[in-house]
Structure formats: C-alpha cells, structure tokens
Amino acid sequence: MIIKSAEFVCSNTDVKLLPAPQLPEYAFIGRSNVGKSSLINALTRKKGLAKTSQKPGKTQLINHFIINGEWYLVDLPGYGFAQTSKKNKAEWEKFIRAYLTKRENLQCIFVLIDSRHEPQKIDVDFCYWLGEQGLPFQLVFTKADKQSAVKTDQNVAKFRKTLLKWFEEVPAHFITSAEMKAGTEEILQMIHGVNSGFEAPSMPSS
Fold this sequence. Notes:
Elements: E1 6-12, E2 25-30, H1 36-44, E3 62-67, E4 71-75, H2 86-102, E5 106-114, H3 121-133, E6 137-142, H4 149-163, E7 173-175, H5 184-195
Parallel strand pairs: 2-4, 2-5, 5-6, 6-7
Antiparallel strand pairs: 1-3, 3-4
C-alpha cells in the first residue's frame, strides 16, 4: 500500500462524536512510551502526524486520521500512564474500552509491545481482556532496532507462550522499528487486505 495522504480528522473522548463508521478503522494502542506515535509516523511516512514526546501519556484522546481518504488510523491513549491521577486513569480507561467495544467499523486493534522486555503483566492483561471481549487484535513488537534480532525473537516467543496459557491460538505479530521503518510495509499490506473485503455497517434511518 502506498500512502498518498494522511490527515488529522478529530480528537475527542466521546464515542458518539466520532466520524460516521462508513470506512474501515484500525486502532493503535500500547503501554505508555512504547513508541506508538513514532510507529504511526513511520507507517504514514508523515513526520509529526502523531505527536511524540519523552513524557509518557502524551496522547490522552481518541485521535482519528484518515489515510488515502479510504480508511481511518486511530491513535489511542496508552495504558499504564506514568504521571496522572487515578481519576484520570479511570476516565481514560472507560472511554477507551467504550470505543473498542462499541465502534462497529473497527477492523483490528494493533497492540504495541516493547520488544526489549520480557512479558509485562499490563500488556498480557490487556490482551486477555481483548480476548474476553472477542475483539480482533494483532501484536506489534516495537523498537527492534534497539537490540539484537536474537533477543527480540526470544522476547516475542516468551510473550506468545504466555498468551497461549489463555488463548488457543495467538494472533499474528509484526516486528517493527520506527527508525528503520521495518515491519511497516507488512502492517500496511495486512490493512490493505482487510480493506478489500470491508462492508460498511448499515446506518439507522433517521
């Protein structure tokens, strides 16, 4: 897939105010500081599309971007915010979960995992919750350029083995590097394949 355009559409926390669900949609989410914004910018080939920050928890809204005028890329707040109140965490978790469970045109949730670490409970628990909800997701291991390929493969294998304690089959995964743009073509190819079979949900008559 060639990215010809990537434009910001809107930011909010109210699922009712999101764009009409007439185009396929893909959400990106992960633990704070997992490199989500950098990966989104690498995917879209548009530096600065998603705001990057050294401070975890920069993204605090549901951010919609329209790609090639054909599909939505959604940048979701990270879970496990480092510096915020328990009240804010609870509020963010509530609207994130409402979005994930109610958005009818959501085709896939890309769960970003830092490839440098062994399985983290917060990531595993989130994947378990997605499984309980029956939501389609795939794993995206980030920052693979920060260590050897052997170490990355080891951590990926450990994470997949951990998920097999609950899942009969582990979702597909991608190994990525935002700096090297590794894995981005594979993700876009997967999205292109799903888009080709997308049928917009019927809109209720007014």
